[in-house]
Amino acid sequence: MSRTLYADTGALIALLYQRDQAHQMITEYFRVLRAAGDRLVTSEPVIAETVTRLRHDAGLSRVTAFRGVIDRAVSQGSLLIRESEPALRRVAFDVIERFSDLRLSYADAVGAAIAGERRIAAVFGLDNDFRVMGFAVEP
After folding, report:
1. Which listed residue, 74, 90, 105, 136, has the most CB atoms within 10 A of its CB?
2. Confidence of residue 1 (pLDDT cuts 50, 70, 90)
3. How is domain 4-83+119-131 classified at the CATH fold level?
4. Contact of 15 with 27, CB cutoff 8 Å
């Protein structure tokens, strides 16, 4: 049975940037997710963080590759990018306040809000803050 996981910035960067220390682990696990037919959901803030990091760390060619990857994944139905709107923003700020001891980024708070609204139990990523908030972090 396929699942839906929330995709966080760390996993997306590691997937596309071969020099990232987690590249091999994330790439291998991504293959497992694809083979199982699992679907990923992510957010606009994660897209923004990923593009910014790839642009600075890996260059424009990696940003261009990332664009192609997400465009294909969205058209194939294996990735959903949750659009931002006021209700999501309010919930994200509530998450930041509720978990004030974690010093969450806005992108992580949006991720937790999306995972909560969609009843997603697992995050494809590297950020342990999601674990503290009650989500499984894979791999």
Report:
1. 105
2. confident
3. Rossmann fold (3.40.50)
4. yes
Name residue 136's beta-bridge partners. 122
3-state helix, strand, coil in the chain (%, to 5): 60, 15, 25
Q: Which residue has tokens 């791999």? A: 139
Condensed to tens digits (0 to 9), the pLDDT of residues 4-33 reads 999 999 999 999 999 999 999 999 999 999
Calpha distance 41→21 (Å, rounded): 23
Helix (H) or strand (E) holding 123, with range, is strand 122-124
Q: 74 φ, ψ to 5°?
A: -65, -45
Q: Are 2 and 37 in contact (CB under 8 A)?
A: yes
Encode pLDDT of 104-128 as tens digits: 999 999 999 999 999 999 999 999 9
Q: Which amino acid is at 129?
A: D
Domain definitions of the chain by residue range:
4-83+119-131
From the list 1, 19, 22, 51, the residue with the least C-alpha distance to 139 is: 22
Question: Helix axis angle, 44-57 relative to 106-117, nearest 10°?
Answer: 140
